[in-house]
Each structure stands twice: as structure tokens, then as C-alpha cells.
Batch of 3 targets.
Target 1
Amino acid sequence: MCRCELACFFFRCFFFFASLPTLHNFSRCHQEGREGCTTRRVRTTTQAHTSPGVQYRPMERMEKPIMVIGTSAPRRREIAQRHFGAAYDLVYLSPAIDEKQIRDSDPFALTSAIAQAKMEELRAKVARDTALAHRIAHRPGSVAVTFDQVVNYHGEIREKPESQEQAVAFIKSYSNDNLATVMTTVLYHFGTGKQASMPNTTLTFYGEISDETVAHVVERGTCLHTAGGFVVEDADMKRCEVKIDPGTEEEVCGFCENSVRALLADVQRS
């Protein structure tokens, strides 16, 4: 390497090392400037969210509509809770009417008339309960539901047995035979004032029902409060059951989910 090239090399090295503090300071200032901008942005954002006069509230929980169910039957209540408890606040009221005052030889007409009468009484009860009426008025989509069901045994309409003896006779007659249920569901929409009804039928088939089975069913007493003395969910009756066709056990118990959903869709149409 010649003297000229060597001198040039040392000059470049000197210049490089002499400039290092300046580069370091520039880098530090540049970094501080970025952090300062970030800090200013954060401070500005924070101030925007905490400006006086501006209130931020958490989203209020939407209250569910109310479904007033006109029944005192525990099984119906259980089924209603299973299918509609998530979407509605369920309120149970018993529409106490004298069903014996309503007569008709047609099971469809009979159950429709009784279910309609129950709805009238149920709505009157709601109107008398000012607290409940107020809640319903402030819950859009609130509805009321009533039901009536009879057993149709080969053309004979059977309602609740009037004595243990009649309950025994009813249950014995179902041995190696079948029986139908006829039910009407009525639904009223408090907001629109619309009311609609829908019938439903089931057919249950039994094998032999022994006298011992009949005695156990009657002893438990539930059969005295059901149409035709018919308790499809009773453990002893279940052992004698062959099939339910058409229908489901829930429908035999007096609550038809499909009917309620169809009626809800009907009354909610504009």
C-alpha cells in the first residue's frame, strides 16, 4: 500500500470514530421523540375517555318478555320451563273456572271452549294484579297461554275422574287397548291483542295392565287430577306402554311445544 492510500485509510477511520457520539445522540433523541409522541397519544386518548360531562355506562341487560302460563299442573310447568324458560320469564297462574259448566259432545269443540274460558279468566287475573300488569306492559312480546285436554276413549270423552272407583275403571279399560287425547292450546299476545288457538291429538297403546299396577297408580293419587285418570309418565304405566303414535309423551302430559311455537309465530305476525 502506498503512502497516499495509507493516509487516506487513517483519515477515514478517524472520521468514523469521531462521528460515533453524534450518531448515538441522534439515535437517542429519535427514540425519545417517538416515546414522547406515544406518551402524548396515550395521554390524549386517556383524556378523551375521561372528559368531564361524558358518562360511559355498561350495556343494560335486556329483560325477557313474560309468558303467563295458566296451569297448576307440575308436569306442564316442568315442560314449559324446559322449552321456554330461556326466552321468557315464566309466571304461573291457575285460571279457576268451573269446567263442568261447559259441555260439548265434540272433544275438539269442548277443549277449545274450555281453553278459551281459561284464557278470559287468566287475562282478568293479570288485570287485577297491578304489579304483574305493569311488568307485562314494559316487557314487549309478553304472552299468555292456556290449555285444556280430555281423553277420547273410542268416542267417549273422559275428563278427570270423580272418584277413586272411577279412576280404577278408567285405567283398567286401557289394558291391551289404546286411548287418544285431544288438547287445545290458546295463546294471547298482550302487545298486539291477537289471540290464536290450535288443537293437538295423541294416541297411546298399552299391553296388559294388571290389577296390581292399577292399585299402585291409584294409590299415588296423581290419576285423580288428570283427564281419564291417565298418567303416561307413571313408572308402572310406563312398563305397560307399547308406543305413542302419533304424539309425544310431553303432548300426552298436556303441553305441546310445537303448538306453542306455531301460535307465537302466528300472533307476532303484523
Target 2
Amino acid sequence: MSNIFSSPSNMEALMALGPEDIGHNDFVNAFDHQPPSYQSSELFGSGSLAPLPYTFNTNDDETATFISDANLGHVDMPMDPPNRLSTLDSSSQTFQPVEMVPTSYVSNDGAASVVTQSDISRVWATEHDWTRHRALITELYGENKLPKVMSIMESQQGFKATVKMYKSHIAKWGLDKKNKEPEMRAIVRKNKQRAEQGKRSNFLVRKRQLKFAEVVRYWQRKGVTIDEVIAQSTASPTPEAVECFTPPVSSPMTPPEDLATPEYMLRTIRGYIAASFESGTWVKTDLRSECYSIKDKLGFNHAMDFRDLGNLGAMLFDWEEFEEMGKTLCAASAMSRKMLLAEDPQSLDVILSLIAEMQSRHEHEIALRILRQLSAISKELLGESHPLSLFLVWLAAMPWSQIRDIISRCFDVLIDDFESLVGHMHSSTLFFRLSLSELDSNLAMLRRLLEKCESALGSYDKRTLDVRLQLMYFTVTKGHYAEAMRLGDDLLTYVQRHEERVQPGYFSTMSHGYIARCKWALGEQHSAIQNLELAVHLQTMQHGAQDGLVRNWLFTLEQWYNRQGRLNEATAARDQRIKVFELTKTA
């Protein structure tokens, strides 16, 4: 039987194995014959060869030394070589190593080589080496996986150790990367507390940076949402292994307003999206609901209220109701503070859509005033270097002729990034896509999107109904009243049949509002007023009399009543609108 010690190259292969990679029985079973006498001068030449030292671990972690004999090229060892193990102290039950001497082996060609204890030490890292390189290994392991750490240490430092050795020292040094539930709970709790204070957070766990996205995935694997973790949070000390700090301001090389290019603005938006998800400020949800900010779950509502107030201000400007317009824009400014503090993922969409709508109505002055106000408030609340503050400042400084193109490209960025982060059929992604379709006046794209949603999601899925409602709104603005009426009737039918699966109040209310506009345009004025009165009633029941959309519709009702000569009803609508406005100011 040829054995692994039959040549110098095989001996080198043995030395490349780790001490724990071969056991005692593996070693002695490499030989299958009873050897001749150990004193045989014929076999050993001029003198017997010293034993080969081999170390292995015993059950009690004490190091034992195995001594093999002589000519490994031609001689097999007995299964139990006498007196070749270090002597066992009967009292301590530990191995007492014998003194090592240089070891020789003879190759098949008779040439002898010497392997010394220092040779073996140079192959494998000693405990002194581990201590000397501890800081470097700790740093590397914090940013890399173990195989890469091993490769770097061996190639750059000449530090050679087995996986088992690394894992043993990693555990001993407390560098375990396995996430623990108390630490994950503490990070969620700490992140929410700091977000409510307007602070961003980075976390280290056992000196390793941990992105909040990893924390979210940890709880997702357990079938638990971040909301549920927050609800279960209790006041308790932060584990010692968890460290929290505020990340530095991203770029001191921020270009001034007059040097900001569209490309730089778009990169800023991309960075803002990525950082918001990574820090845990924005939370990914199931596909049927919009992503939200942990700073304020009502952030989306604040954004929609801001939009309604902004639109109403523009309408009042058109009708030369300047005093009420000024008060309304002041209310919009106050609402924008709540919106900006919340940093809801949909807020940027709402701002861009509002500015684009005002541009389409040639309301340059109001749009610019709103943009400047938003940028000033954002700098105050979020800081001058915050990505949203920078973007708003740059947008307000752009030539008016370039605004629409910038807004369109921003929607492209929002759609692309959210598709990659949460999926192309996620509610937030569809929200941005609907806004882009409105901006581009792309009726064909909306129709295709509705067909796709009905095919993939079904007719009664909330996302499908959202697209249907947006298509209805779009056909109204384009003057396709017959199609809009059909879409509205279909939507009301869906809602009535499946109230338990959808939001009947929202879809019914908006459908009646759009149907009212269609009927007024078609000359069915009495029916139009009835539908709009019903829409006002439903919206008030759901959101209260101070709702911004209620004020918008009351203003429209006032105009319609006046055109029909129903002056008393027009006055009543105006009084109700003013009363609602007073409620809004005190809310």
C-alpha cells in the first residue's frame, strides 16, 4: 500500500493540513503492515531517525503530541506504537509533552530531509500571531465574509490558519455576526426614537455596521412587521453590543444653486431614496399599501392635505379671491411643515405633481412662491445639507422652461428606484407611475396599465381600482366625458359588490366628484350638483368638515349655484367654506 508519506511532496501536503484536519486513528491507519525491528540498521541506515512530532486536541482542549517513527517512505507503524505518545500524568489526566527534536524523513530516492518544530510554526499561526493581528482581523471581519478575511490575511500578512481556528478566535473575541433578537428590538426602538427627533441613525453591532434594511429582513424572516416590533417595544437599556451614531453630512462639495445641474439633482434624489430605506426612515410594506415613514405614519395624509390646499389657493387666485387665497396659502405652508417633518416617501411626488399642475395652468407666480416657501421650511426643519432641502432650493432656482423636464425625469428616477426596491406592482411604484402618466398626458399608457393590473391583480384589487380612478380623472380632464362616466359607473358597481375588500368610502366619494364634473360639462347641471353635494357629504363623513378637498368642492358648488342663479345656496356654500377654513386654522 502506498501511503501519504512516500515522498517529500506528500510530506509538504501533510504540512498544509491543519492540526485539527487529521485525527490519531487516521494517522496510524496510514500504515498496514507490522514493521521490522526498530533497531534495524538495514532499514534506517547509519542511525535510527528521530520521531516526527504531530499535535492534536484532546477532549479537554489540552494539546497532545504524537511521535511517529523513522523511515516514513518504506515503513508502516503499528496500530499502537509503544511509548510514542507523551506520557499521561495519572493525577492531572493531562498530556505532558516530551521535548521535540529535529525530525527527518527519507524519500524514495533515499535522500533525507529535516522538518523542525520551527518549520511547523512558520506554517500555522501561533497564539502570539493571533494576538498581534487581532485588531486587523477584527476590522476586516466587520466588513467582509470569513473566506475573504482569510485570503487577505494569508496573501498580505503571511498569516495562515484554518476555518476552525478562525471561528474559535472569532467566538472568543465576541465577533459573532449572528443577529440576536434583543439587539434587533433595541435597534428598531432606538431608530424610531431618533427619527421622531429628526435624527438619522447608523448602527454598529459588535463593531460591525448594520444597515436597517438587514434589521427589517431579520423580522420579515420571523413573520413580524416593524410596526409590530414597535408596538411591543418596552423601555429597556440598549444592549452593550449595540452602538448608535448620527451619520456625517454626505457631501461637503455641494454645488451652489447656480451650478446645480439636472444630473446632480437626480443623483441627489437617488441618494435620498437609498439612504431613507437603508436608515429605516422609510419602511417597505406589502404590495397593496404605500411605503411610509416611521417619523409620522400620517405623513401621506399631510402631503395630500398640502396638495389640496395648494390647488385651492390657485383656484382662488384665478377667481381673484386674493384675501382668502393668502390665508389658504398660509394654511398650506403650515401643513407643509408637517409634511416635510414626516418625510413620507410620497411627499416628493405630491410636491412635483402640484408644481407641474400649476405650470400647466400658467400659474408661475404661485408655483414659485410655494417652491421658495418649501425650500426655506425644509432648510429650517431638516437642515441646509439635507437632500430634500438641496433639491427644493435647486428646483426653485431652475429656469421656468426647464421645470417640466426636471419633474418628468424625477418621476423616472422614483419609478426605477422603487421598482428595484419594492417591486413594479407595489402601490408606491404605481402611485409614481400614475403621476408620470398625468404629467405626460399619456392616456394610452394608463389604459395599458389598467389592462395589466386587471390581468395580474384582478378587477377588485385596490391597486387596480386606483388605476381605474386615475384613468377616470384623466379622461375628465381630456374631455372624454362618456368614457369617464362609464369608468365611474363601473367603479361604483365594483365598490358596492365588494365593500369588504376595498375602501368603499374613498372610491365612491371620488367617483361621485368626477361624475359631477362630467355631467356639468355635458349640460346636466342639476344632476351634477346632486353628485357633488353627495361627494361633499361623503368626504365630510370620512375626514371631517375641515378637510381640504371639502373646501375645494364647496368652492366649486358656490360657482355652480351662482351660475344657476341660486344665490342663497351659493351664499350658504361660501359660508360653509369659510367656516371650514376657520376650523382648519384652529386644528
Target 3
Amino acid sequence: MASIAQVADMAAVPSLQLLRWIHQYGLLENRGGLGMFIDDDNVVRLLRMSELVARGVPEAEAVQEVRGLGLAGTPELPHRGSELVARGHAGDVAALEELLLSRLPRPTFEEHVDRWLMPELRRVGEAWASDEMTTQQEEFVSSGVLAHLYARLREPAHAPLPMRSVVLGLPAGQYHEIPVLTMALALHLRGIRVHYLGAAVPKRDWVSTVIREGATAVVLAARSPSAARAATDLTNALAKVAPGCSAWVGGSHCDRVRNALCTPDSFQQAAQQIADSLGEASVAG
């Protein structure tokens, strides 16, 4: 069962529009208002209706297809209430980008990363692990989020502070880059000069970039024992060649990394601590 509001979130349409479809076209036998609950079969019908209309199919034609929808063998209901899971099922690039723009506004980016983006990404992982999403659907969401973050990182900073720079990325053998790329964008939006290297970056490239840019800090992640070992290899090298460069590490195994500081779990707090460590007053996006 799901409420009208939950289905509206999954379908990315206003609640009142769902109610209009239900009442105007008689899609459900038991009709109610905003407080009504809808069984899983009819949730699937409403999600299909929203997909068809979003593609430009006239409502009257969409209704006919939805009414004829045989629900035996219909895919499981997506992870209830998750907007990213719903976008993964829809596979609509434009709709995913529109969602990310609306949910990650520039002035309060870090707050919305903590409150919306990271919880949503966890739900995507859970949906994939429980076979509610295919690998292709999960990768569609992940690649869409990465593309969104990369595009925004290329935009000019609102109030650049050129005196400090931070190098971010993942050490060799590590590929889960959304959290570190998100931090790169958070610092960029604060006006801090960032150099994002990407995933699985060899140690020599880290060292050369830090020296060339005169970086004040580096940020990386350690989500596993192997990642912690790779991060330690890097931070030990940086401690020798760039002793004035501080290292910040996020992830569940950050405390295993030597010559580094763990970032708080909160992106907002982590970005603030890193900005403070640079000796710069934080600048709101």
C-alpha cells in the first residue's frame, strides 16, 4: 500500500493530478481524497500512466493502455517513496536531471546532500540488492548523478577564493566516487579552488598535482580495508613531499588511514571543517 503523496513522489507528478486521473478516468474502484491509500497493483498502473504522459502520450490513450495492463508478472513495486529509484525505473535522463536540479539547490546544497541525496542513494543500493532494480537501472541513476555533479563542478564559483586549493579524488584501485565528487562540488560552491582528479588515480599523479597546484589539503575516501591501505600509501607519500598539505578522509574506514583526519559523516559539517582548516571564511553559495 502507498499513499497518494508517496505515489506522487515516485511518479514525479503533483498529488492533485493523480487524483484527477483517478476520478476523471475511473482508474481505481475505491476512490478517495488525498488521504487515500492505493494497493500495489494500482500503484503500478499509476506509475505507468505517469510514464506514458511524460513521453507525450495523450491521457485518453494512456488510460486505455493502463486499463489493459495485465499485472500478473508485473515488476515489483519500486522501493517505496524513493524518487531516485522511481527515476531509475523510468529511465528518463531529462526527468532525472530535473529532479537533481530541484532537490540540490545551490544556496543549500550541503544541507540537501545530507537530507536527501545520500539517503536516496542508500535506497537505490537497497533496491538493487533486493532485486527491485536491475543493474542497468542502478547504473543509470549513478551515472546520472555523476554527470550532474561533474557539470555543476565546471560552472564558475559564486565568490571564488583563489588563495587556497584542495585536491580531491580516489586513490588507485578505488572507484566509488560520488561522495568525493559531491564534496568537491560543495567546496567549489563555497568559493574554494578545487582540483578533482577522479577515481583510481595513481599515487604519482596525486603527488605531482599537489606539488604543481601548491594544494593546502587533499580529500579522499576509505570505504573498505583495501581503500584504507591505498589511502595510507598516498597520505604517507604526501606527508614526505608536501608536509604542509593536510589530508581529509571520509568513509567507514577513515580511522585506519595514517597522516590524515576523518571527516564528519555530515557533508555540511565536513565542508565547514575543511573550509575552516584552510583559513578562509566560508562563503555561502
